[in-house]
Amino acid sequence: MHSNAVRESRRTQLLVLLVAAVFILVAAALAGLVAGSIATLTTTADDIDDQRALQATSGAVHALRKQMAATLRDNAYWDDAYAEVNAETRIDWIIENWASTSADYPLYDTAIVVDSRNLPVVAYRKGVPMNVPPSVFFDDFHILLDAARRARMSDEVPVYFARSSAGTELIGAAAIQPFGSAESLDPGRFYVLVFAKLITPAVVAEVSDSFAIAGLRLDLKPTTGRLAVALKCVSSKDIAFFTWPSVAPGTKSYEKVDGHLRAAGTVLILFLCAIGVAGGLTVRNLRKSERASRHRALHDPLTGLLNRAGLLENVATASDWARLNGKQLRLHFIDLDGFKAVNDAWGHAVGDALIVAVSHRLLDALPDDAFAARLGGDEFAAVTLEELGAEAIPSFGRRLQEALASLFDIDGRSIEIGCSIGVAVSERGAVETGELIRRADIALYRAKDLGRGITIDFDDSFDDDALKQAELESQLRATLLKGGISVVFQPLINARSGAVTGVEALARWRKEDGIAIPPDVFIPLAERAGMIDLLGMQVLTTSLNAATAWPALGVGVNISPLQLKNPRFVEEVEAALKAADFEARRLTIEVTEGVLISNPEQARRAIEGLKKIGVKVALDDFGSGFASIGSLRRFGFDRMKVDRSLVAALDVDQNAGAVLQATVALANALEIPVTAEGIETEQQATAVRLSGCDELQGYLFSRPVSADAVTALYCGAEAGGRASQTGR
């Protein structure tokens, strides 16, 4: 029995040992699997954070270059700057506006302007003149200047990093040119503005804080054990590196639980539990880190809204949902009206605060199941999901425009803006994301073209219109190159004598197929396509050449507000007068009220220049807009032309006569003679005569006629005058 008990005990012991061994082997295997998994998770976490840091640092480099490019664009593509650097006082102006500010301006510490031969006109660093030529101080300086001259206004401003005598610098250059630069200007003759900023430890520290990159520093070459992003020069060479240590969140997380794992080693169950807990914590940390990195990648840092990448991803997801649930997706592209003026007047800090305030109102206006994004600058987007064919009343666009119509209070400033909205619809998610965005973009441009402050839904006809506009633009360009724009003339009648005292020149365009294109179509087209200067000068030259045959008649020529932005406009008018041997006093340039509001200082300079050479200036279409008494006094117009709408109202509005009399009385009080336009009946002619208008124009007297017809009319009047004198 004892032997049986011993054998039973031994069998039990063996079984226990076997179970223990198996348990230990299983535990070891599980521990090995868990350890391998933790190692993989740790490495993955480290890699994710490293990639996040690489993206953040690359983004920081991009942000530095973009900020410098924006600063150069604002300062170089500027009408006033172009005029000033081409003036005799250029050096004083450059020093006052750019060079002296290099002493303490946060975005640059070096300001250089070179002429068309790449010779420095002014070169300041930290507020004092440079004692070393820029081409010696900066590597690849001439290569950067060449890149600036090749860049068109629509291209990115060339901004790179460079080695200098002081260290590593952020440097960019842009050709100084008018904002609406004509294609006829030679880029090789432009002055070039160069800004540079030394990458100091303080700059590196600011980047480190702004983009959450711990331990960031500037090195001339990569350092072992540190992550790095190259800083490239204009020749695409690596001249320096931003480097920083890997944070290794996965490794640190593992180190935090390693002690617990060792302590639990004596008790297998506790050991396994500890591994499970540690694994769970690690996974949770990894997921949290991944969510944070993903959020940063898909959201705008200023407003917290989705960015462009986030919008694309969410639109794709929403399209799938709309497809499965039979809904329609409505994409709104939103552009703020008047934001650039806020930035120009009060700076980017106020502009950023305004953008944040707009984002809050945008979110408040969003319906349920909708989302919004900031696409950059003052552009936003919103996506709503609705029932098929639904038309929300009021629409989201209307609600947003009403929300933005209220004044914004930014740091004690009352700011008023609006927005234009383009909308594209995808029923059941059928429209591909890229195509949906294209349609919304086209609709937005249509909204801005129609006057801003409105919401426009995309229509298939917009594509047809775009093609037609492109074809019409090409035909207009070809016509202008051949000098094919014709001019007709409408007589101006003395209100007392009935004699013809002058003519107004009017542009006409008849295509090769015989179809006449109205001026209200081809003139805005020429403005958008950058051809208005060429069109305007052709009309002026043709008018002056024709009017040389009518020495007793004055000639009025309309100009576009965009022509006044050309700093050489007055010079070109003077050259045209000399070429035609035409007396300046016989020419009247007619401008509309809009130019007085959009850019009053520029308009004032141009008007003063015209009057200085003897040309008269008339305010056209008075009464159709917002010109004030102050404007009439300030600009010193030689004549005011009453808008045809005031004359037409005489037939339908009993108060129109009083309005017309008040308008003419205002001009007479300021000793400005008045022309009444659009007269079609004898009753209208009598009314405007009695109101005090000294000059009349309209179909009652003559439609616009050719130059030959005016010559015949003029010669007939001359002959009649001579006959009367002979008879006496």
From TrEMBL:
Residues 469-718 form the EAL domain. InterPro entries: Biofilm_reg_signaling, CHASE4, EAL_dom, EAL_sf, GGDEF_dom, Nucleotide_cyclase, Rev_trsase/Diguanyl_cyclase. Residues 327-460 form the GGDEF domain. SMART domains: EAL, GGDEF. CDD domains: EAL, GGDEF. This is Bifunctional diguanylate cyclase/phosphodiesterase. It comes from Rhizobium fredii (Sinorhizobium fredii). The lineage of its organism: Bacteria, Pseudomonadati, Pseudomonadota, Alphaproteobacteria, Hyphomicrobiales.
